[in-house]
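In response to a reviewer's request, we include the raw inputs and outputs for one of the modeled complexes. The two entities were modeled together in a single run.
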Amino acid sequence: MKRLKERYGEVLLFNIGAVVVGLILSACMLLFMKLNPIEVYSSAFLKIVTDKYTMGEVLVKSTPLVFTALAFAFTYKANLFNIGAQGQFYAGSIVAITLSLQLGAVLPTGLTILLVLVGSFLAGGIVGALIGFAKARFNANEFLVSMMSTYVVSAVMDYLLRTVLRETKGEYLQTDPIDAKAYLPSILPGTRVHLGTLLAILTAILVWVLLYKTPLGFRIRAVGSNATAAELAGIRSKRIYVIAFLISGGLAGMAGLTEINGVQHMLLQNFNSSIGSFGIGIAILANGHPLGILFASLLFGFMNIMGTTMGRMPGLNIPSSIIDLIEGIVMICVIISYFLRGYVHNRREKQRLRKAGAQK
Amino acid sequence: MAQPVVEIRHVSKYFAKVIANKDVSFTVHQGEVVALLGENGAGKSTIMKILYGLYGADEGEIRIRGEAVHIKSPKDAMSRGVAMIQQHFSLVPTHTVTENIILGNVHGRIAIKEYEEKVKAIAESYGFDVPVDAKVGDLAVGVQQKVEILKALYLNASILIMDEPTAVLTPQESEHLMGFIREFAAKGNCVIFITHKMKEVMEAADRIVIMRSGVVVGDVRKEDTDEAELARLMIGQELTAPVRTQAPERSEAPAVLELKGVSALGPEKTPVLQQVSFSVHAGEIFGIAGVSGNGQDEVCEVICGSRPVTEGEVVYRGEDITRQTIRQRIDGGIGYVPVDRYRDGMIMDMTLAENILLKSSYGGRWTSRGFISQKRLNDYTSQIIRDHQVKATGPSDLARSLSGGNQQKVVLAREIDVGQHLLIFNQPTRGLDMGAVDRIHHTILQEREKGKAVLLVSTELSEIFEMCDRIAIMYKGRIMGIYRNGELNTQEIGLMMAGVAAGKEGQ
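The model returned the following structure tokens for the whole complex.
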């Protein structure tokens, strides 16, 4: 147990180190723009921690990332790669907006939210299950299929936005706003933080319980670690592929609920177009652990808001592309640190053995 | 004394978590055959892989012909005359013998005929009967090994390392190989062969280096030692063989398992089993002897349900189970200890408790209200650790962290529990140290006493003779005959393992 805690400390240390290195590298970019990075960073940081609304925005940005990261982590445990969380999120969003537009004004809030929750989970889940089925039945490469599925779903979304879902004004490629009765209730006054954030935390815990405390989760992990042995133990790995992808897709679909009913209150073209790919990075950063994902998502939510805050600083003219750049650099540093951690760990074990051997 | 050809001085090698070699030193002289004897995991292969450049040493140095060398890769090693024949051959099955031999050492246009002549000449000089233009994939394992040896000879190797060379050979082929080793050494070369078989050591080696837990525990000339001393050095303690009483005639006991004319196909639709028929009765150990790769694995697979049967039927306790799923058969009480623990038997990245759970995650045995009852599972696993003397700190140890023998004990415990009526053991002691082998043999005999039917596949004749009541010999997917233990001697079984039919067919 003690060693486990040491490991956690180590993980934390490396991740923080990686973020710091990432920020230093990004600082160089700011230097090219003849800006003082320390000044920019510290004023952005101060702005976030002192302003309640901005602080809340961090949580708002983190929320959908939790879902897409959980989606990636879930199939990852079955040794499958679901690269299509973006598409499954869109599928969930389409269902969420449709249900909210149709029923939002009629039904009580709680019921609408519940229906949207189930609907968006199923929508994402079905897209996911189809990928799992292609893998199980035709041995298709789930990596490619899931990646391509995103393009299909977003094309479908575009089509719907141009036809049946288009706003009544017919001006932009977006839907009408949903009725305020269908909003996810705000939970922190003075911010945009909504019930979806709590839902994200709850879902992460549920996913953890499912994976580590139930027979189904055990079977999913068993297939992920050694499919042949699992198969010989009577576990049908093909069925597990479909189940894992179904749940994974459903998790990504749930982000549709939080984004449509919690933040945007409408569906628009290309919205939140990078939460799928960030989800992958977050899941890797958290080593696939559902509870680690909560913290990793928070980190990326924070980075995102820090970027936006920097962009809004008066008189500095920091282009928005630099914000994406910073996020990207930090992500790369985090992933490199993951491998570095393994290397350091190995070396330390070796030295320990050498000492033990010398004493003998 | 003349300068040694190979000098290994104080070499140590650490892997994460284990000491593979600690301060290993020994020498090999010209014309000498050195046997590297030790149990699995003693570090024999590691030290040889260091000499061959596959691993780098963490400490110590290696001298070849007096010169300190730094071998960074097999290519490096070969340029100094060191060649190694691995346990798993590194041949391209779709290439011909000659193509395999010249692989990596030719440039530009290849005059294949010339090379074939050259290879043929080398083969003939050692009396190897190898078709130089045949595809390697079509050759028997014993012949493939000769191709590996030819590859070394072609590169003018003068220091030949062989890792468990007889593991895949019939007794006759082994004898032939030992002859070659002697002949090759007599020409002024040296041979280091890794083994854990005492008999080979006494037959072919001049000197024996014994390793245990990564260190050299003995370095003796053959004349000055005997098998008893070697065994003691190897395992560090005396051993008593388990006493087995031959089971009485069991044919009147009910047949638990019956295979009736079972055939099965392998990849590429080649027949791997042809008309296999036999029965295993309650309270009996039925052995299948044969050189590995002659259909024994497939027999186990059709019984446990992981390989479809194309013809014939599998009858278990009077019921045709040919079309049942693996899970149905597990629930029916068939336990299976597969040959490849790493691939089929365990999940190395999971804990011992989770590995115990593996075959019983369905059904309510380990769950309460839909959740895994971790406490019950841990208690049960702790009990297994105690009862089977598994060297582990507790149920939450990762399977990977255990030694092979201890992993096998866990698999065995699980399968004995699953297999209420029938137990299939596919080479259950392969690669294990003698202490663990002994323990596993005792367990198998105990299960027989409980009246379970036991099917034991083994490539070690000594194990077959020691354990089984009846013995079937397999060759190329067929049963060559079924005999009661004691009806045949090693010579006769050896011939049948090589495909020579005996005078009488099995009953």
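As requested, we also summarize the result in words. The interface with chain A takes residues 12, 14-19, 22, 58, 304, 306, 325-327, 329-331, 336, 338, 343-350, 354, 357-359, 361-362, 366-367, 370-372, 374 of chain B (CB under 8 Å). The first strand of chain B starts at residue 6 and ends at 15.
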